[in-house]
Amino acid sequence: MFALAVALLVAAVLGGGSSGESGGDGGPAPIRAGVEKAGDEPSPGSVEELGFPAFATSNTTRVGGSDPAANAAGVALAVYPSTDDALRPSAVALVDANDRPAAIAAAVLAAEPVRAPLLIAESDGLPEATAEALNALDPQGSRETLGVEVFAIENATAPGDREVTEVAGGEVAPRKSGTGPAAAAAAIARLRDRLFPRPPEHIVVASAARPEFAMPAAAWAARSGDPVLFANARKLPAATRSVLRRHREAPVYVLGPSSAISSEVVREIAKVSDDVSRVSGEDPVANAIALARYDDGDFGWNVNDPGHGFVVARSDSPLDAAAAAPLSASGTWGPLLLTESADTLPQALRGYLLDVKPGYTTDPTRAFYNHVWVIGDEEAIEVSQQAEIDALAELVEIGGDR
Fold first, then answer.
1. Do the beta carbons of residue 169 and residue 176 sit within 8 Å?
2. Quick check: pTM over 0.70?
3. How many CB atoms lie within 10 A of CB 361?
4. How far, in Å, CA of 232 to CA of 181, rounded?
5. In this structure, are residues 264 and 218 in contact, taking their beta carbons and an 8 Å threshold?
6. In this structure, are strands 164-168 and 171-172 parallel, antiparallel, or unpaired?
7. How many whole angstroms separate alpha carbon 390 and alpha carbon 367?
8. 3-state secondary structure string across the chain
């Protein structure tokens, strides 16, 4: 189902209607669609074969991988269809499946000017979805990436046939393992300083031990180019402190409640940085909504009205936040929102989507529209929940005689 979804997703992005197996430059990226599915094969032309409504509805599109590696591959090919050189990324960021904080911090590499989508590696090599996506994306490096094709983050296994920069342990090559999320994030921040033309305008500090509260930072980093650093619940790591000192003028936003990052840590940050604020909700769902609503000058999504894109993922899958981050820096750019279970839309998320639900008075073709990316297969987010999200994103007539 993943490969079928990717094929449909790429076709949708390209706007094409053909499903033939063309090998020409105009065809979709070469991810095979012939994967086995449990149970009987659906009859030709059936709803199950087409993938609807599980793949897409009027206002939602699903990246339906069975795991984060498959979701990352699907997102990368949605953002970069890669049917010709102009549609390929210059580089990709390869993150380890067991290093969730580093993956979230690496989302900053998806921002301009690097625009490197994230792919996921495992300890024994590359998952099939990652290997196929990397082959299809075929990054060639550029001036913006300093000629690098793959940024291998922490312990990610890198392919031997690519120009690779290893980013780990507070250093950019050679690799040092086992140094923790704060040091890995600091190394990514230093790499960001080398690659980006300007210092960061802001810095986000998130929880190393509670990645469910750090997840929304990945989408913001991809959209803004602001680095993500990590703190412990009651201590500011030295690696994080070092980056904050280097960018003392950049305002710092602590993401998450005091149960994830204490007020004591916020006071430690204030000794280093000139401007510190907290953005938080008491649970992961509310925390993501808080960042989506937040507005402080040029920091924060400030999504408090209709006409936006959104990404919805499970709060217990931090890797999906990193995988989906490029969707927040392309297309219908929008914040990451979280749901807690497969079958039930959280009440707080329902209320937020209802609050920003689009409407029109006379002409729907001149209205603002919402679009929602749903991350994960039906075991992660059921079709019933996707349908409810679709209804909340649907444009409706308001005012008049009704």
1. yes
2. yes
3. 11
4. 10
5. no
6. antiparallel
7. 17
8. CHHHHHHHHHHHHHCCCCCCCCCCCCCCCCCCCCCCCCCCCCCCCCHHHHCCCCCECCCEEEECCCCHHHHHHHHHHHHCCCCCHHHCCCCEEEEECCCHHHHHHHHHHHCCCCCCCEEEEECCECCHHHHHHHHHHCCCCCCCCCCCCEEEECCCCCCCCCCEEEEECCEECCCCCCCCHHHHHHHHHHHHHHHCCCCCCCEEEEECCCHHHHHHHHHHHHHHCCCEEEECCCCCCHHHHHHHHHCCCCCEEEECCCCCCCHHHHHHHHHHCCCEEEECCCCHHHHHHHHHHCCECCECCCCCCCCCEEEEEECCCHHHHHHHHHHHHCCCCCCEEEECCCCCCCHHHHHHHHHCCCEECCCHHHCCCCEEEEECCCCCCCHHHHHHHHHHHCCEECCCCC
One-letter amino acid of 150: V
Distance of CA 222 to the CA centre of its chain: 7
For 254-277, b/e burial (b = at least 16 CB within 10 A) is: bbbbeebbbeebbebbeebbeebe
Each residue of 262-316: pLDDT tens digit?
A: 999 999 999 999 899 999 999 999 999 999 999 999 999 999 999 999 999 999 9
> What span, in angstroms and rounded, lies between the C-alpha atoms of 369 and 307?
4
The number of residues making up the chain comes to 402
